[in-house]
Every structure is written in structure tokens, then in C-alpha cells.
Design a protein that fits this description.
The protein is mainly α and about 200 residues long. The chain is built from ten helices and no strands.
Length: about 200
């Protein structure tokens, strides 16, 4: 994990150092052969998985509790995800909901644009993958400091879709819905644009 964290600032991945972890168990049945350079999906898939692993390496650093949420694993209350009142746990650990958790379930009366929302808006305004990756680095760092866990499987899918203009906006739409939907009987927080 330390080797993965080395490339966080630049987006570089030390491929020969982490290749065994990345490629040894690569799901060829579903994602294809990473050695097939003729497959135009492989490079974005590898970039999405590698970036997700780098973000996880940062998120988990010096933490004793698991920062990556997975179905069927126990949470802080020792209950498995299937035991908790049939609540969709995957949704509660989505990226948009995790961003809401960073903001500390802010009071409904607050209608300010938080630092988290500024980062998200900046990604949407400039949807270049390097810019997005840099902003995600900051958000994952905030999740780590507040011990907010994340579903890294779905996060890797998001990272894949963020690399294409035709699917990028759907990721931001999903993150917005996950962030702004009512949580625990709280009403939505309204965004006020900087032009208002």
C-alpha cells in the first residue's frame, strides 16, 4: 500500500512494484485480458482499478478499522449488512453518501457550499480525469480523517465512467442524488451557485 501511495500526487502508478497485486487476480472473465492492447476498454479499466487502489491505500493508512466497505462484512455494531433492518447498505457507503458523511450531516438550515461541495463542483466544472483524481485525493483524505468508509467496488465503476464524456455526467448526477437525498429525516441541503 505504501508503494501505491507514492504515486498519489502525480497519478503515477509504480506498475512493476504493484503489478502482482493488480494483475494476478484480474477478473479476465468480466473485464477482459489486460495484456490485450487491442481492447479499447482495457486501459480505462486498468486506470480505474489502479486509481481506486491508490485511493484505498490512502484511506486505509494507519487505520485499524476497515475503510473499504464490502457486502456481508460486519460494521461497527458487529452486525452484517444483511442484518441491519434490510437497509441498502451499499447505498449508505456510496461515494455521494460518504461525501455527505464528511460534511457531518449538516443542519438543514445551512445552505452554504461546503469545502466538500466545492471539490465536487470543481470536478464537474472541469471533468478532466487528472483534475478529478486530484480532487478525489482531497475528499478521500477527508473521509479518512472522519473514519467514513466507502464501497470501493462501486467507486471503481465510477472512476471508469468518469473517463468518458458520454458517461461522466451520469456519475455526477448519481453523486448529487446520494449527497442531497434526505438522510435520517433531514431535508435536502440546497446549493447556491457562486453567481447568486
Amino acid at each position: 500500500m505504501a508503494l501505491l501511495r507514492k504515486g498519489l500526487n502525480t497519478g503515477a502508478v509504480p506498475w512493476l512494484s504493484v503489478g502482482i497485486d493488480l494483475y494476478r487476480d484480474w477478473p479476465r472473465e468480466t473485464l477482459g485480458d489486460p495484456a490485450n492492447e487491442n481492447d479499447h476498454h482495457i486501459e480505462p479499466e486498468i486506470r480505474a482499478v489502479a486509481t481506486s487502489l491508490q485511493m484505498y491505500a490512502l484511506h486505509q493508512q494507519s487505520k485499524s478499522e476497515a475503510m473499504a466497505w464490502m457486502p456481508g462484512h460486519t460494521d461497527a455494531t458487529e452486525a452484517t449488512s444483511e442484518q441491519i433492518n434490510n437497509v441498502d447498505q451499499r447505498k449508505l457507503h456510496s461515494f455521494g453518501h460518504a461525501c455527505f458523511e464528511i460534511d457531518g450531516k449538516q443542519d438543514e438550515s445551512k445552505s452554504v457550499v461546503t469545502p466538500v461541495l466545492k471539490q465536487l463542483q470543481s470536478m464537474e466544472d472541469f471533468p478532466d480525469f487528472d483534475n478529478i483524481r486530484h480532487r478525489l485525493y482531497s475528499l478521500i483524505h477527508m473521509m479518512r480523517s472522519k473514519s467514513v468508509s466507502l464501497d470501493y467496488c462501486n467507486f471503481a465503476f465510477d472512476l471508469y465512467d468518469l473517463q468518458f464524456s458520454y458517461s461522466c455526467s451520469s456519475v455526477f448526477d448519481r453523486w448529487a442524488r446520494e449527497y442531497f437525498e434526505p438522510h435520517d429525516n433531514q431535508t435536502d441541503v440546497k446549493i447556491h451557485s457562486s453567481q447568486e
